[in-house]
Amino acid sequence: MTTSHPDRAAARTKTIMQATLALAQEVGYAKLSIEAVAARAGVGKHTIYRRWPSKGLLFLDSLLSLNEPVFDYPDTGDIVADLRRQICTVVDLLANPPWGPLYQALVGEAQHDPAVAAGLNERFIRPQTDKTIVRLRAAQEQGQVSSDMDLDLVMATLSGPLYFRLLITQEPLTHNYVDRVLEALFAGMSPRL
Amino acid sequence: MTTSHPDRAAARTKTIMQATLALAQEVGYAKLSIEAVAARAGVGKHTIYRRWPSKGLLFLDSLLSLNEPVFDYPDTGDIVADLRRQICTVVDLLANPPWGPLYQALVGEAQHDPAVAAGLNERFIRPQTDKTIVRLRAAQEQGQVSSDMDLDLVMATLSGPLYFRLLITQEPLTHNYVDRVLEALFAGMSPRL
């Protein structure tokens, strides 16, 4: 049986990404090295460097490739329930061990490496923002959210409080916290009439 | 003229912090080293290490010591105007050059170094949170914000969208953005009745 070149390349990519994630979980992101990934994956380090110029970009690819499918929005017709379910899915994955510390380290790396920041935005934040806007525009049309709501801002207001807790106060991100954030954002700070 | 020991220590601390900030602006946080700070300040590096066990903690101290006074909340009786003025003051300082890249690097460091994260929270985030809650509780009592508003969450909802832009999308933080965030948070996402 022969394997075609694209299949072999895909299998090697998968092996490298699995080695990256396994090692990152074992030693932590700070101690992860492309040399160690190459050794674990059984490839030369130049094979990795040809495709990923930095460990930040390799790790970004590894993290996102395995998990993109879970980030689709449900649409049950109840915007609060759907936001809650989608945000809790993301939070369960990205804010808890084993992913939590790794995603946090990736965002930390994005503060020092503009290529990682750009990749994080292009690969993960921008697509999530687009999906969020599509889901919220539908909710606006159904009268479930205010027609005045600034759709361009909504990813920042929805995700910002989660990132604040993940990156700044570094307290645990719980479903209860997601509930409280959604309640606060839907109610608004203005006095009730 | 003789100088008492506490005065000499305070002067030396000031010299070290000024050297830290000057060097950080010249070479960037990533290339900052305690050795270079010691040389610039004219002290031995052990003098620095005795007080600051890492460059992250030295930089945190240097950044915050010089700027704590500006973060007090005004109280003109108009909560939206006061929030706007206070947030714009912080944004002008922390999100623009020369501080912006340095503060961003500090938060990046906090993702890898728990002592920096703890120091950032104790020295800057917690006191700001306390001041924000005091100011908003007064506004609640004056009927300017909803009595249902979750005061424990308000720092996350107010600051989160700013940190999201600073750390994740890395777009410029402008006064217009602050205005839009405040407008969105006060109005809420629920449909207007």
Account of the 3D structure:
2 copies of one chain form a homodimer. By secondary structure, chain A is an all-alpha fold. Chain A folds into 2 domains: 5-51, Homeodomain-like (Arc Repressor Mutant, subunit A); 65-187, Tetracycline Repressor, domain 2 (Orthogonal Bundle), CATH 1.10.357.10. The first copy, chain A, is built from 9 helices and no strands. In chain A, helix 4 runs parallel beside helix 7. The longest helix of chain A has 28 residues, at 114-141. The mean pLDDT of chain A is 90. Chains A and B meet through helix 6, helix 7, helix 8 and helix 9 of A and helix 6, helix 7, helix 8 and helix 9 of B.
- Total helices of chain A: the number is 9
Tell me the β content of chain A.
under 5%
- Please state the second-level CATH architecture of the largest domain in chain A: Orthogonal Bundle
The structural domain count of chain A equals 2
Order of helices and strands of chain A: HHHHHHHHH
Oligomer: homodimer
CATH homologous superfamily classification of the largest domain in chain A: Tetracycline Repressor, domain 2
The radius of gyration over CA of chain A amounts to 19 Å
Structural class of chain A: mainly alpha
Features:
homodimer, 193 residues, mainly alpha, Tetracycline Repressor, domain 2
Can you describe this structure in just a few lines?
Two copies of one chain form a homodimer. The first copy, chain A, has 193 residues and is mainly alpha-helical.
